[in-house]
Hints:
Elements: E1 6-12, H1 19-30, E2 36-42, H2 50-55, E3 59-62, H3 70-85, E4 90-94, H4 96-106, E5 113-117, H5 129-141, E6 149-152, H6 155-164, E7 171-173, H7 187-197, E8 204-209, H8 218-231, E9 235-240, E10 263-265, H9 272-276, E11 281-284, H10 293-300, E12 305-308, H11 313-317, E13 321-324, H12 329-340, H13 344-361, H14 364-378
Parallel strand pairs: 1-2, 1-4, 2-3, 4-5, 5-6, 6-7, 8-9, 8-11, 9-10, 11-12, 12-13
Amino acid sequence: MAGAPIKLWQVITSTDVGGAETQLLRLIEALDPGQVSMRVACLLPEGALASRMRAAGAQVASLNLAPGPAALTRGVGALRRLLAAWPADLVQTWMYHADLLGLLAARPLKMPVVWTLRCSDLDLTRYRRSTRLVLKACVALSRLKEPRVIVANSQSGLDFHAGLGYPRAKLRLIPNGFDTARLAPDAAEGGRRRALLGWGPEHLVVGHVARLDPAKDHAGFLHAARMLAGRLPAARFLLIGQGVEPGNPFFAACQEPPLAGRCALLGRRDDVPQWLTAMDVFAQSSLSEGLPNALGEALAAGLPVAASEAGDTRALLGPAGRVVPVGQPYALAEALEQLLRLPALKRQALGALGRRRMQEGYSLEAMAGAYLGLYRELA
Length: 379
């Protein structure tokens, strides 16, 4: 007779759309509830992915904390009470703030803790002082008995955090997984999506998917787009992500020549896989990444890619596109131009190569299996 399912708390800062949040959702969807029973504790007010986590079988509770240092003290007590109400075999936390609060809340309850790291070589000067202090505290606490294991989603992220002082003996690599059945090329859908924007098959569509965040370097992408627009009259630019909206003054350049009339800013979307089908190539401009979700999804959707060499980008991309130095929009524009000037069949062949890489090396099943093995080991 099979044993009872492992009881697992997942503690995450937000349930809004983001890389870590999306991977947690995919993990909940992939794991059999008969093997792992999950509940999610979210530090911030409930976001867009919470309902999808519930639909996948996890209960979700939000602590509704306000961002800022004052919330940390109140958050530890509130989270401890929530964890105590459903004693679990294991607590997994996602990103620095949840790592810190989750550890402090779970220790008195004697629940084993797993931390989950999602970034590498992060330029902390671009973030608030409170974030830097949280990371400093995590480095110090990482040397205690808990957390038992610290999972990184990229080798670059693992090495970066070991350099900060995280114990290398606790660090393990579990790459992101991608649902290649949900992400697939679809020319007919792509044509419909282009028509919604007033674009046709004669246009060359460059896609960019990322929330508005300093690490994603939207300014660098827009610089590259301006250069590319001057060289290729058929170029069009499709940007998706939280905060990437027409009313945001950050994107004023999209209303000015040479980008005026050639940019679509769609904001946060729940139908990104469908919009990927409208793109000819995908661009990543990030200054810092772990193993980038948006890049993996673009590859799974069969898109050739020009990407900045952040985190594990080169290992993920392989020969399915172009890798350029971080923070160099001139190089990004040149790489995008090279891809767009290829015959359509050659672009499609590159995209097919990237899709095979995702199917063979970065499947959702492989990620879920690795986490299930870890849970069984610790529980």
